[in-house]
């Protein structure tokens, strides 16, 4: 009963098999492996972007930071939500990689999404002070959001339109890219460049890889700068084939889509069960993550029984009847039986 | 016949097996995996350093840069050789991670080792200008050197003594740590803290891992700062168990020592064969890497036959009799037959 | 009729005289001038801080950035208001000098002051995420605030108490230090270390110097690091005596206090006159700066007549009756006649 | 008898007069003062560069660092001599402002000048390692050199030609620009853009200003980036007129040229006198600075008599007959009588 994070589960067997297969004989290092050639071709095809520059790194923080540093000058500010991973969970990595850029919060505290209005308002603040204020920089959108909701294509497009109206580039933090894509039933292209996105952190780790994320620039003009930034950040793997192989295993057939489909289905099953118990959600669960309020007594029962997850606000101390919100994340490796066991416990059965 | 680098060969079967074994069920992320507990205990035992702070990262550039940034203020300078990886091959990663420190070259161009005299002279240069010049910072020693030689324990100790006489910390770039250790027939402790080393980049990747390096601080006071630097550099793996498992597989039994022993033996066999053909070496090959001068015609014959390696100075164009130096590196996965095939070709058989 | 800024007026005659006097013969450079010895002694005496480390730089942005960088690690976040100069008006200088620290806004948009509650809430946000979130760093308080109000000693102490309860250092941005001190009728010590402030940007430029600010650390342990940061920031003057002389001229007798007293009196006279005309203020004007709403027609009349000042929100376009807020700043070099002329114009006389 | 540095002497009376004249009434801040308009026009005229972007900062380290940061990416390396101010005397300011670029030494230890051959060799080192090594960046030439010699126009042109053949920009550190220009008897244009220089640190401080240096880019495309870098470095003066006024006073009539002419004449008189005493020079004194070997006994006599200057290598301890090199710098404010007094003392009269 592990719902702590989608980075706690095992890697997909196809990913491990690809690693094993790649571990044969010699391969040139530093991205010149044949597997990487296949990865680039595959991602360009999937994204319908034959010119795209494609790179692999090992963590989401790296993908975000390097992509943003490539798009953002040190005297600029990045627009994002208050709950964005780049703001709250990367120990100032974007500030470090950009050489001291700022992050401007374009959504209120605890709000999952930017809106065109909130984004525009944030951008406007930086308007009229010449050299004195931070200069306007990229917009970074998180999809799936940090609260488990998913921007619709119309919402994404509207945000990108605002950015474009100020001539600002758009970055998509897609740590849970495929979960969002499956939730929307759209194509990778529709969720990115067709909506106006310029660069994507295309996550693999949370959806069944060991540790690999792709960074995709739809305009290849960014390629060489990114390669230099990756190298001096220490993120260019010498035995690069083990990154490539993971991504190859992940993207072959429909492994990546099936994994996200299963994770989302797990979450839907869990959310349905909890809703049936009368539980309420902070935001509508739309992908593989939810924030659900349950009585303290229920949490105690679940955690005592070995369930693993994070309490989001509040602690176990105090009145048993009081509600405390938990974050529950479902990965591909969960199954209906475990979820039902959890729901039974929650129901007090 | 692949002698291009020890990062071109396959990973050790024990490493892959450990990855596979670790891929079972859920594990807490970000270094809280049970495998990491075992790694820390193992490394502390191997190094006879029960208090040491131990961390894993995925590349050598990262290990060096994060270790040095922890030891070096931005207004200081790091002392190293002209051929050091941190100077020539990391695209200014140390300068980036330290926030703009300098590297001072304490050995002449193309020289493999610092000497106490050359180190002392370099340190003295920075002596008398107060706030104006760069301040003296850590000494970084590469062992195995970039030219395939190995500092003796006496040499290491003498360099550390110079550093200590100026109260400067010492970092050891041990990308090929085990190859050096095997060459010297010494213990990890003897080659590090007993000689005066404060922090080590303990390489796994070049000796049979997929991509893992340990950073070891013998004084744990550096632990928290390192953890923060690792995180904001994007180097803290969420599914950290896959780093830990590699290192566990590598360190179990004597896998790591046997791999380096085999690599060194491969190199000795190769060097012996080349020497028998009359070839000369830029520096005495003492571990698993050599720089050997061969006639252009020999290079052409070898490369035409499919041998893979780097020419170090010069090109294939010109007089066939002229000597061109090649870098040849042997990893654990080579074997005597392949080397003999290479030697036969070199001999023109 | 110049109310645009207190950095638009001429320098005090005493400051210019001191420069002229210092321009005699040879002086050792880089802060070793005899004038600096006098400045240090004078500031230590004024602040009743015989151990304080005292430095001079030429701009307020520099004073703030270097002081904060000395107090703040790159992985930390600085707590300040949304309207703070360090956040809005320094083009990311604090982010640059700290090597990529973050600024956390501990007051709502357009709010002049932090409160103990808003500061505590902001600090608490960063509490429970270990290495993932930014670490808590210094608190930076602006006195006079950017909206022309002045923290009382009780307010300052309460904010410092919150900071101290989390073991965080406190920086005071005193670009208008003396205006605040005069407004409060307190001593420099009361407004700083006695309230709990650790480091001060003690402004001279806005109160009649040409370009000099002191940075004062009450704990001299920060001295050497500051000196190195100043040098590598390019802020150590070779002909340092011209910085020292300004500060000497400024601090001799009660020149600095009289200048601020006059500036505040000018502002009080102006505010009184405007209030008599029925004008309203965004915040109560408590030092030498005010934000006053006037009808567009009034602004047009004033600006047409040659008055110089900034409209804070809104423009001159639109209905003449509509109110637009202006920022009016009074420096020491204004006088009652000019202010009365301005008030007559505002009154439509 | 002060020969310690040309930053120890008083400012020119014309500079002080210009400051005093500028201190009249209100002036817009941050470079929008009318004096700056005049400075820009004057410098463009002097340099025959009607499109040049012109900025003022207060120290030479700032001028160099901001100019180089504008020309140099963080992953590049700057080519300079071992004795360059940017390498030895700025506490890593170029590394800081560039965000971690490297400096590559293109001349041997203690050598005053780069040659086309030494520059080309240094550039070639960085050639063939793709993303791994630092990338080639700007060439920075110091004129007057740190050893008091002056590059001829032919030498300057030859260095720029090498840089251009690799498509690298050229920066001129002209802390003693006018001393060099006077020594060569050439125009500012000949010593800069006509020779191939792209950006100049045009020093005022060492030649009689209080603290002002111009940064000049002959291609105005760098203007906006420079303005942002200047601001976030804390180097944009609010009361900017006091920088502008210094430069105006300095450039009016031929004040700047006369000051350098006098400083050089002082040095020539001093060098001639020393040579007549049999003294030898490390390098031929060609501007206003020399490195001269004198017996210890002579140094003792001079210093005892109150002469002020720096010993460059060695100390006063030991055999009186042994030679120790001193650095002697002459500024505009010296005169023949003082020099003759010094020479008499040196002669033992």
Automatic annotation (TrEMBL), chains A, B, C, D:
Q: Which residues form the Aromatic amino acid beta-eliminating lyase/threonine aldolase domain?
A: 3-293
The cofactors required by this protein are: pyridoxal 5'-phosphate
Q: Which InterPro entries match?
A: ArAA_b-elim_lyase/Thr_aldolase, PyrdxlP-dep_Trfase, PyrdxlP-dep_Trfase_major, PyrdxlP-dep_Trfase_small
- Supply the Gene3D superfamilies for this chain: Aspartate Aminotransferase, domain 1, Type I PLP-dependent aspartate aminotransferase-like (Major domain)
State if Disulfide bond is listed as a keyword.
no
- Record keywords, A-Z: Pyridoxal phosphate
Spell out the subunit comment.
Answer: Homotetramer.
Assigned protein family = Belongs to the threonine aldolase family.
Q: In its UniProt entry, what is this protein called? A: L-threonine aldolase
Q: Which organism is it from?
A: Shimia sagamensis
């Amino acid at each position: 009963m592990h719902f702590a994070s989608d980075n706690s589960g095992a890697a997909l067997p196809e990913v491990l098999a690809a690693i094993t297969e790649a571990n044969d004989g010699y391969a040139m290092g530093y991205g010149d492996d044949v597997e990487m050639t296949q990865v680039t071709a595959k991602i360009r095809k999937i994204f319908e972007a034959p010119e795209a520059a494609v790179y692999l790194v090992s963590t989401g923080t790296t993908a975000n930071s390097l992509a943003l540093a490539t798009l953002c000058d040190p005297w600029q500010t990045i627009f994002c939500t208050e709950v964005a991973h780049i703001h709250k969970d990367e120990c100032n990595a974007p500030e470090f990689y950009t050489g001291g850029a700022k992050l401007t919060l374009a959504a209120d505290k605890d709000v999952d999404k930017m809106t065109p209005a909130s984004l525009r308002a944030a951008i406007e603040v930086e308007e009229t002070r010449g050299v004195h204020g931070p200069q306007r920089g990229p917009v970074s959108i998180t999809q799936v959001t940090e609260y488990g909701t998913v921007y619709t294509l119309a919402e994404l497009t509207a945000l990108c339109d605002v950015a474009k109206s100020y001539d600002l580039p758009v970055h998509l933090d897609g740590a849970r890219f495929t979960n969002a894509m499956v939730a929307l039933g759209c194509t990778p292209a529709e969720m990115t460049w067709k909506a106006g996105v310029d660069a994507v952190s295309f996550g693999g780790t949370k959806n069944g890889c060991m540790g690999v994320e792709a960074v995709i620039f739809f305009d290849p003009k960014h390629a060489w700068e990114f390669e230099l930034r990756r190298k001096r950040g220490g993120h260019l793997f010498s035995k690069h084939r083990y990154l490539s192989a993971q991504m190859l295993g992940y993207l072959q057939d429909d492994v990546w889509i099936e994994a996200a489909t299963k994770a989302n289905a797990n979450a839907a099953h869990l959310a349905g069960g909890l809703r049936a118990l009368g539980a309420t959600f902070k935001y509508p669960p739309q992908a593989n993550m939810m924030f659900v309020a349950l009585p303290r007594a229920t949490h105690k029962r679940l955690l005592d029984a070995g369930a693993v997850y994070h309490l989001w606000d509040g602690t176990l101390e105090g009145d048993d009847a009081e509600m405390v919100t938990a974050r529950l994340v479902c990965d591909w490796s969960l199954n209906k039986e475990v979820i039902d066991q959890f729901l039974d416990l929650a129901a007090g059965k």
